[in-house]
């Protein structure tokens, strides 16, 4: 990131870290026409990414949609004034047409990522793919090869890389304020009711129907750690189980009462008492959390060792009060930081023994923190601005480029697969040997 300051002497910080890291990025001029986008999958994530075009309509416009659920398809078509001829029930219908847009957002279910991504890459669409890239290593390899062969702009929805909070953490590390990074401790508190909804009753409850929970929930987190630590990961180990959400823990007094709280928009597309009641009675979201067919781990720890000798540990835990409010501590040779994941970073300078409370959104000038702490908006902006730079040679956007490209994503996904392999085999995994096992060139 070009605006990160450089220091000739990183042993003293005579000026406040806030002043040294404050960004004064110029907003680039918009392109001569909006960059056109097709949406494949108009569910929660696809709709969220499409909404960017409402915020910055001078930069992007939704011109096509493919979605099998009629209500979602029609809602997006109406909201974005999409012509009837560009409204499809399936992406296979869309891909048969001449190229409809500059870019495509692929936000299908996890297990349906590979085929459309490869097809749209082969047709030279620039692609934003919702995470995870794929649920198998072979799937990740196919996508990576297609993107590299076709030389398209590509980003994965690792939105945590783009939040003001995590951008500032990266800036502090790269600027040398912490010295050499020695250890990172990171926790992802999923939230008991969020886990029960999504990973016990919902789409990500069974590995054979989706993927293991470390991938579906925490590929974000392992990606973030690898982003912060520029040294390559060389070893990983992991432990975890499905401990609580099973029949042996069902209370005697538990009945068949059904909860009608968040997120009803996932339970039913039409949010009223009749449709909600019907969905809870007949669909998966009304089941008792102790009597479901879930099998993914509800707690897991991952240990990482890097080539420079530094280490990291990541904990995913379902049974928490807070929901996805990640907490991180990073320990360096010259200082440490403690982060709440969204709003604040406490920086401690070992040399001066002084502490500073940093507020990332204020320092970096972010005004919208909706959608993963501002990550959704910032990712879309980076994706669209990068296309603008490619198509129209736009300037002043160097600090807004994609950081979750195909190679970065492939590497961090590989660490997730290796960690899960460790959990299932009880062995410490050497990353180089793991790559060789899967025929992956370093």
Summary?
The protein contains 17 helices and 15 strands.
Task: Summarize the topology.
Blueprint: H1 17-21, E1 35-40, H2 44-50, H3 52-55, E2 60-66, H4 70-79, E3 87-88, H5 91-96, E4 103-106, H6 114-122, E5 126-129, H7 137-150, E6 154-156, H8 164-174, E7 181-189, H9 192-201, H10 213-228, E8 233-241, H11 264-267, H12 273-282, E9 299-306, E10 311-317, E11 327-332, E12 335-339, E13 345-349, E14 354-358, H13 360-364, H14 370-373, H15 375-392, H16 406-425, E15 429-430, H17 431-437
Parallel strand pairs: 1-2, 1-4, 2-3, 4-5, 5-6, 7-10
Antiparallel strand pairs: 7-11, 8-9, 8-15, 9-10, 11-12, 12-13, 13-14
Task: Write structural notes for this entry.
This is Oxidoreductase domain-containing protein. InterPro entries: Gfo/Idh/MocA-like_OxRdtase_C, Gfo/Idh/MocA-like_OxRdtase_N, Gfo/Idh/MocA_Oxidoreductases, NAD(P)-bd_dom_sf. One of its GO terms (molecular function) is nucleotide binding. It comes from Gigaspora margarita. With 442 residues, the protein is of the alpha/beta class. A nine-stranded mixed beta sheet has the order 14-13-12-11-7-10-9-8-15. Strands 3-2-1-4-5-6 form a six-stranded parallel beta sheet, sandwiched between helices. α6 packs parallel to α7, α7 packs antiparallel against α16 and α10 packs across α16. It is globular and about 65 Å long.
In angstroms, what is the radius of gyration? 22 Å
Helix percent reads 25-40%
DSSP E strands, number? 15
Shape: globular
Q: Count helical runs.
A: 17
Structural class: alpha/beta
Strand order of the largest sheet: 14-13-12-11-7-10-9-8-15
Largest sheet: 9 strands, mixed
What does the average pLDDT come to?
88
């Amino acid at each position: 990131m070009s605006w990160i300051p450089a220091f000739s002497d990183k042993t003293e910080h005579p000026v406040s870290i806030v002043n040294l890291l404050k960004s004064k990025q110029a907003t680039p001029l918009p392109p001569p026409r909006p960059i056109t986008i097709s949406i494949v999958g108009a569910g929660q994530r696809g709709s969220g990414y499409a909404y960017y075009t409402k915020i910055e309509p001078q930069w992007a416009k939704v011109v096509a949609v493919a979605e099998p659920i009629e209500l979602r398809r029609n809602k997006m078509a109406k909201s974005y004034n999409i012509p009837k001829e560009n409204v499809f029930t399936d992406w296979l219908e869309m891909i048969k047409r001449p190229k409809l847009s500059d870019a495509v957002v692929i936000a299908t279910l996890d297990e349906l990522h590979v085929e459309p991504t490869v097809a749209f890459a082969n047709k030279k669409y620039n692609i934003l793919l919702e995470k995870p890239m794929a649920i198998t290593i072979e799937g990740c390899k196919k996508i990576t090869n297609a993107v590299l062969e076709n030389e398209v702009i590509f980003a994965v929805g690792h939105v945590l890389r783009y939040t003001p909070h995590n951008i500032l953490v990266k800036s502090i590390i790269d600027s040398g304020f912490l010295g050499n990074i020695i250890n990172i401790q990171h926790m992802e508190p999923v939230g008991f009711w969020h886990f029960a909804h999504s990973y016990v009753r919902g789409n990500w409850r069974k590995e054979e129907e989706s993927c293991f929970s470390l991938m579906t929930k925490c590929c974000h987190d392992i990606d973030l750690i690898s982003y912060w630590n520029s040294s390559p990961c060389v070893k990983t180990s992991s432990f975890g189980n499905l401990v609580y959400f099973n029949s042996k823990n069902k209370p005697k007094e538990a009945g068949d009462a059904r909860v009608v709280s968040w997120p009803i928009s996932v339970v039913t597309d039409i949010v009223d008492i009749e449709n909600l009641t019907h969905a809870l009675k007949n669909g998966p979201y009304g089941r008792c959390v102790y009597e479901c067919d879930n099998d993914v781990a509800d707690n897991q720890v991952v240990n990482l060792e890097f080539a420079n000798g530094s280490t990291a540990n990541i904990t995913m835990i379902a049974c928490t009060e807070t929901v996805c409010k990640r907490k991180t501590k990073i320990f360096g040779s010259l200082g440490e930081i403690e982060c709440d994941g969204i709003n604040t970073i406490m920086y401690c300078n070992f040399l001066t023994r002084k502490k500073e409370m940093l507020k990332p959104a204020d320092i970096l000038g972010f005004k919208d923190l909706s959608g993963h702490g501002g990550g959704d908006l910032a990712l879309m902006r980076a994706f669209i601005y990068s296309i603008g730079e490619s198509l129209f040679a736009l300037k002043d956007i160097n600090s807004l480029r994609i950081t979750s490209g195909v190679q970065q994503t492939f590497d961090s996904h590989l660490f997730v697969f290796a960690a899960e392999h460790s959990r299932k085999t009880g062995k410490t995994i050497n990353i180089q040997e793991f790559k060789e096992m899967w025929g992956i060139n370093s």
